[in-house]
Design a protein that fits this description.
Blueprint (H helix, E strand, L loop, with lengths): L4 E5 L9 H5 L4 E3 L5 E3 L6 H13 L5 E5 L1
Antiparallel strand pairs: 1-4, 2-3
The structure holds iron/sulfur cluster.
The site of iron/sulfur cluster (SF4) has 14 residues, from helix 1.
Length: 68
């Protein structure tokens, strides 16, 4: 099984602070209104660490990591 993770965002909870996509460009982009869009996966050690930080640092607890 792959160690890669992707993300899921609870759009009803997200407030568009941008912490997730500013620090995880391989996983998130943002739409025209500043809300995150999941575009990829985290697979390197640095990317996995960054995604873990995004999950833990989202002020709205709107980010979850998922196995791919
Ligand atoms: S950090 Fe959380 S609240 Fe902010 S844009 Fe990302 S998912 Fe939304």
């Amino acid at each position: 099984m792959s160690d890669a993770l992707t993300a899921e965002v609870d759009r009803s909870a997200c407030k568009g602070h941008g912490r997730c996509y500013m620090t995880n460009p391989e996983v998130f982009d943002c739409d025209d209104e500043g809300f995150p869009i999941v575009i990829g996966v985290a697979s390197t050690a640095q990317e996995l660490s960054d995604l873990e930080r995004a999950v833990n640092n989202c002020p709205e607890q709107a980010v979850s990591a998922l196995r791919v």
